[in-house]
Amino acid sequence: MPTAGWWEALWPDPAGVLAAVGLKPDMEVIDLCSGDGWFTLQIARVARHVTAIDIDPHFLEVARHRLSENSVTNCDFVTGDAYELSKLVPGPVDFVYMANAFHGVPDKPRLARAVGATLKPDGIFAIVNWHQRPREETTVLGEPRGPKTELRLSPEQTIAAGEAGGLKLIRVVDVPPYHYGAVFARTGP
Ligand SMILES: C[S@@+](CC[C@H](N)C(=O)[O-])C[C@H]1O[C@@H](n2cnc3c(N)ncnc32)[C@H](O)[C@@H]1O
């Protein structure tokens, strides 16, 4: 999880990013690999309810504090592994959001399958990734930022991983300056 200063500079409008990838009011949402809750807070302000899931309880504590000091209460915080998603939430959801984490998943089709199994029949999985650009080109506040160049995924690689996990691509959106969003729907009954 990055330190706060440059993260906030990179993401001045998290609500705009979430709207671009399809977040809507009244949705039941999972913020998967939620980190310190920078996006979770904005999801909670729009959605009916959000479950923030992260493998690191320290980040969830920071997220809990962030939402609490903003008087936002429609969020649960769950420590767990993204692969085990269906065991971590009580029922199917409308929207799973995963930002800045998919590049680090060892078995991406497995993760896509796990997400598909937690979605309602018309549910959406939105992945926000760094573009596949050299790290030295993606500067924020004067420093190269983001994952190592070799870990970054093109939209095509992300689409292939989602489809290999049984999901159907709806659209790809650009998220300037350095990201894109790949938006998938669940397929099948
Ligand atoms: C770069 S941070 C992104 C946080 C947040 N999504 C954001 O964009 O602000 C990546 C997060 O993924 C979490 N993570 C890594 N592996 C995970 C796993 N297997 N299951 C759940 N969370 C995981 C890390 O603990 C970290 O908080």
Rg over CA atoms, rounded to whole Å, is 15 Å
Distance between the termini: 36 Å
Instruction: Assess the beta-strand content as a share of residues.
Output: 25-35%
Low-confidence stretches: none
Largest sheet: 7 strands, mixed
- Name the shape in a single word: globular
**What is the tally of helical segments?**
7
What is the succession of H and E elements?
HHEHEHEHEHEEEHEE
Number of strands: 9
| Residue-averaged pLDDT | 96
Describe this structure in words.
This protein is α/β, with parallel strands linked by helices and 189 residues long. It is 32% helix and 30% strand. It has helices at 4-10, 14-20, 38-46, 57-69, 85-88, 108-118, 155-164, and strands at residues 28-32, 49-54, 75-79, 93-99, 119-130, 139-140, 143-144, 167-175, 179-186. It has a 7-stranded mixed sheet with strand order 3-2-1-4-5-9-8, sandwiched between helices. Helix 6 (108-118) crosses helix 7. The chain starts with a helix and ends with a strand. The model has no long low-confidence stretch (mean pLDDT 96). It binds S-adenosylmethionine. The site of S-adenosylmethionine has 15 residues, from helix 3.
Relevant terms:
7-stranded mixed sheet, two-stranded antiparallel sheet, binds S-adenosylmethionine, alpha/beta, 189 residues
